[in-house]
Amino acid sequence: MIKALEYFFEILRGAVITCRHFVVNMAFHILKVLGFKVKRRGAVTIQYPEEKKEIARRHRSLHRLMKREDGRPRCVSCMLCMTVCPSECIFIEASEDPDPEIQKVPAKFVIDLSRCCFCGFCVEACPEDAIRMDTGKIEVADYSRHNLVYDLDRLLQ
Amino acid sequence: MDVLIAVIKIVCALIWFLTLTLYLTWLERKESAVIQDRVGANRANILGLRLIGLFQPFADAIKMIFKEDFVPPFANRFLHTIAPFLSFFFVAITIAAIPFGDTLIIGGRSINLQILDLNAGLLFILAMLSLGIYGIIISGWASHNRFTLLGSMRGAAQLISYEVALGLSLIGVIMVYPSLRLQTIVAFQGENLFGWIPRWGILLQPLGFLVFFFAALAETKRVPFDLPEGESEIIGFFTEYGGLKWGLFMMTDFMEIIVVSCLVTTLFFGGWQVPWMAADGFHFPWGGTWLLPHGVVVLFQLAAFNLKVFFFCWLQILIRWTYPRFRYDQLMDLGWKLLIPLSLVNIVGTGVIMGIVK
Known about the structure:
The complex is a heterodimer. By secondary structure, chain A is of the alpha+beta class.
């Protein structure tokens, strides 16, 4: 009997908790509608396409290739990123560079984003700081797969 | 002329009922969102006009109407089609006996603000609510699916066992009030207790109110008692339905909420009575009077009835978003071992107290 009463008390307490949430949140919603400036919002929701959260600086977003001062890619086709890539989505074809200090440049540099897992190992592996994942673009979805295969020109932009 | 008035009353009541049903879906989404610190559905718009999602029910309705009307090949076609309409009809017809207000006098003609002034209005509503079980059983049976049939059997068992508690809890009410006619019941609650407390049913029958409210919650088949449906986990009686037919079952649920709110309001919270308001205006217990024209009084009554009904709809949605589902044996225990004995105690207690007072 006592135990049943305890349950009854807990049931009432649950109702009080949801009721409190309702009243408090509703009060803040109404204050906002009436034009008052309040510190707390009625809801924690972020209305995504209109309202975006700031992306953290270390966030791994879409890749980009860095350029030298003269506009050519920094990449020297050392194949380290291609080797370290766990999902094997990077493909590099090297060609000769006339500058003996550089020796190799990529003729093709393709990242297949439909396979990429955004682990960032390529960025860690690169000795020339040629590839970075700091564009801040996170909306890379597309309707067709071949649009997700990024080549050298798109990566250099 | 009488026929015209009757038609106008029916149309108005149905528009009120169906609009409120549609907007209860909106209220359910928004209220649950506010409870859970969310925003809720707010994307449906007309030409970019969002209005905090007020168009959402219409978007839902259009989506449901244009879905394919699919009948599984193994189902009994006729019964499968008729079941949602049965369950919808028996709930929709109960609105006929609900009193929305006192008599309205226009041009010397007095109009009772109730579609159907039955002598046994309370029994009529209870009977129609019980008949709603046919929709459940037929839908489970006609679907020719064992799990669906099990769901409808669970529903039938639950509804029948709570029907007992519901009926017994109302016997105390019937003992206290002089009539089964709902207008008389509401008029009875217009007087004052000890000269200053409105004589509402909740004060005369607090235990009866609790038992009635729990049993009625179980009758609506919503979350703490949603074993017949079990939207997310257990397979319920409308598994084989889609589109508009499923929508009818869903609407039936929301209409039951409104009917339960109307009943609770009418029986226990004074119906359309505003505290201390008589037919000619307010008579405050501390001596003041505020006389009002007849039209304003009727508006006050309609507003009071609507306000009370909205409050109980809100309360039921709050309950639905607070509690987890009962286990089946707990559900049966609550019905047979707690609510029915309590309602019997209520009957005996009411009898004893009435005997002493007389």
